[in-house]
Sequence to fold (231 residues):
Amino acid sequence: MRKETVPIINKLGLHARAAAKVVHAANQYDSEIFIGTDDEEVNAKSILGLLTLAATQGTSVQIRTDGQDEEEAMSAMVALFKNRFGEDE
Amino acid sequence: MIPVLVLSHGDLAREILVAARTIDPQLGDGAEILTLPWDVKTEEASKLLRETLTRLDSGEGVLVLTDMFGGTATNISLPYLEPGKVEVVTGVNLPMLLKVASLRSRAVPLHEMAVRLMEAGQKSIRVASEFLKGRSSKNNSS
Fold:
């Protein structure tokens, strides 16, 4: 199992379109992938779960990947957050 | 893949499907709309609905999401209810449509899909202040 903490740096936070991108990226991997805040941890393959995090800009999230491709899954997840989910700001 | 038909008065169905596809382009195929004018002639609408259901069903049935229980959109769909063929879930909302793709990826059968979408739609309705209050009290106690 791997764990990493990343900040949410895009202006809109983990909003609906960003959450959809996380789900699509997560679905590329067999590993279980979870995203958590101080309040709760949710399945990264569920868009409605991700939205319940209500994670705004500046929130730190813990990413946890567990499975055969956990390393690749973690790299992809971290890259997505660092890349502001492909958003300009 | 079970097709979804969003059925409403006015342009609600069109706009909610546009919003859902903007958020999740994967919803893409297999979702259609039928909108009823406010001065709808129910016989015509019923006939059009029957034709649409027949066209959409490729063997796994069709899931109809209507705007409101008791409204015309729901009422004209009730005659077509049939186990395994047509299910109707009322009170469509955006989270329900966002849930469709994940249920499809797990090949959930029609009736279960209807129940799961209802649950997702209901669970997604929150009083924001109550939700946030629950969080802060949890944080204070930890």
Remarks:
- The radius of gyration of chain A is 11 Å.
- The CA atoms of residues 30 and 69 of chain A lie 7 Å apart.
